[in-house]
Specification:
The structure is a single chain. By secondary structure, the chain is an all-alpha fold. Helices cover 68% and strands 0% of the residues. Helix 2 crosses helix 5 and helix 5 packs parallel to helix 8.
């Protein structure tokens, strides 16, 4: 899939690509994954269905690439000189409103993945695996700086912890994830598990 995606996508401009991705996410919020079709995307974006299939291959890839494009920059590019600073820099890229929208989209796709193997595979290959690799680079920098021991058993569970907090916030507290909540979670759970000493929290979560 990765070998054919780049040449297909290269046939449209970045501006047009961003426009299509925004429309796909709007439709996903409006009708959900199962009711979203390439026909509806074509109609909303004034594209031909043949063009959409040529560029993305199918609905699953189109939706997941739209989610990936929507994310605010690369995690691996956050390099502040400390692991805590890197994590907090990543959080600052997305405000609370955007986090709430992302959380809602993730919940919708999680349900759909149970019944759509193509979506589950695309989600893993195009979103989860690249982000896991990016987090690994951030954590490796912390190991190289001496902040974390290379044999710390919590290293392989960092992504699990972060995704779990993002999802559980709504499930347990019936509230969307926020920057304040995730910063508090990082300082109280993730950094101690990695044996990194966080700075004092500025105040209660909101």
């Amino acid at each position: 899939m990765a070998e054919t995606a780049a040449p297909r996508r290269g046939r449209i401009t970045p501006e047009r690509e961003a426009e299509l991705y925004a429309a796909v996410l709007d439709l996903l919020r409006e009708v959900g994954y199962d009711s979203l079709t390439m026909d509806t995307v074509a109609a909303r974006t004034r594209s031909s269905k043949a063009t959409l299939y040529r560029q993305w291959g199918g609905k699953a890839e189109l939706v997941v690439r739209a989610m990936r494009h929507h994310k605010p920059g690369s995690i691996a590019h956050a390099d502040t000189g400390s692991l805590r600073g890197d994590f907090h820099a990543v959080l600052s890229h997305e405000d609370d409103s955007a986090m709430e929208q992302t959380s809602a989209l993730m919940r919708a796709l999680d349900m759909a993945m149970h019944h759509n193997p193509d979506l589950k595979r695309a989600f893993r290959e195009l979103l989860i695996e690249p982000e896991t690799d990016e987090f690994s680079r951030v954590l490796q920098r912390a190991v190289d700086r001496g902040e974390i021991r290379a044999d710390n058993p919590a290293l392989e569970f960092v992504v699990h912890m972060l995704i779990g907090a993002f999802v559980a916030r709504t499930l347990i507290d019936d509230r969307p994830p926020t920057q304040a909540f995730l910063r508090s979670y990082l300082d109280a759970v993730v950094l101690p598990a990695l044996r990194v000493c966080p700075a004092p929290s500025p105040g209660p979560q909101q």
